[in-house]
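ok so dumb question maybe but i'm new to this and my supervisor (M.) told me to 'just get the structure for Kinesin light chain' and walked off. so i did the thing. is this what she meant?? sequence i used:
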Amino acid sequence: RVSLASEDDFHLKETFSYMKNTIGDDTDLDSLGKILFEMGEYEQGEKCYKRMRDEGKLVCGNAELGLGKIGAVYNNADESLKHLEEALHIRQRLLGEDHGDVGECYTLIGGVHWYVLEDYDEALRNLTKAVKIPEAALPPDSLALAKTYHNLGTTYDLQEEYDLGLNYFMKALKIREKMLPSNHPDIGTTYNNIGKLYESKENYGKALEYCEKAMGIQRKILPPTHAELKRTERNIRKLKDKMKH
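this is what came out, is it supposed to look like this??
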């Protein structure tokens, strides 16, 4: 279904009325452009074809993004970054720097630097750009924003910037607790990461508190023999031992 940005002006309303009377509501931009040309509506035809061109470029950008994600799965950082950066450039040109889809590119690029290359400085640079966009463009309880906060928390944790890491984990947790069911695995993951961070800060009481919260969720959603649950149980025993000394 076609809806041009300038549909409010009189000439375009006339054109759309004509289109509905002749070929109905559903058409594609190519057909609309041809009819506008035949009608002598060259200005509207130009707008139509420019939009068709830009939408085609956005489709190419989506393809580049998908190829970049697949490259990351295969741990092929060079191939992944090539496609993700091309997707970023396309979206920046057509959507603007502050669009949420641009933030998605920065998040994925940061993820490749983090998971595949273990270049935490470069990961942090991209994730920081990513979080600024959804903070401005998305509602404060957006789960996409929570994901970016969580990635930033993990990156700061890996850099031993524990206070900054904790700040972002808590931001992610606040959104997830509000927007997700209480036993959602993403909440459990956040609890677990906060617990590990407190352990790194040698605050074993707080670490135990959050690890036990994570275990409570895991016991509801995982089988008793699951490796992740067993790992959390071992970590809790270790924390209790540390608190005795």
